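Standup notes
- DV: blocked on the single-chain target, sequence here:
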Amino acid sequence: MADTTPSPPPPPASATFDPPPFTPVNRFECEFVLICYQQLTESQTELLARIQGMKQEVQKWRSTLDTQVKAYKVDILELKKELNSELNQLRIEFKELNTNLQVQQNSLTSGRRNLILHPQEVHLLMDSSSPLSLIFNERFAFT
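- DV (later): unblocked, structure below
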């Protein structure tokens, strides 16, 4: 079975493209069209000039912004270096303080060990005739 679809009918003879009938244009209409064209051209020129000005402003702004960003980056790097330097100095000082504290603690511990009396020394202190007892009583007299 063949598919038969009817083809569209040919356009009527009057539907063919005919140019519009010529209408004479008067001088005032030509001048009006010419004035409108000139105004559009001027407007286009003004818009292009404004666009160019805006492009230059954006480029100038971007350049200024890039310069500021570079300056801020340099400032931040300098501050970071200073901060790291101060941090290292504080670490060194802290280590020195810690070392000094350890030395003082060791000194106090050894001093306390020297203050501990052995039983023989306690016996000498209790004996009132010993020279050690006399010195001890002079220094630490309990009156």
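- Follow-up: The chain has a mean pLDDT of 80.
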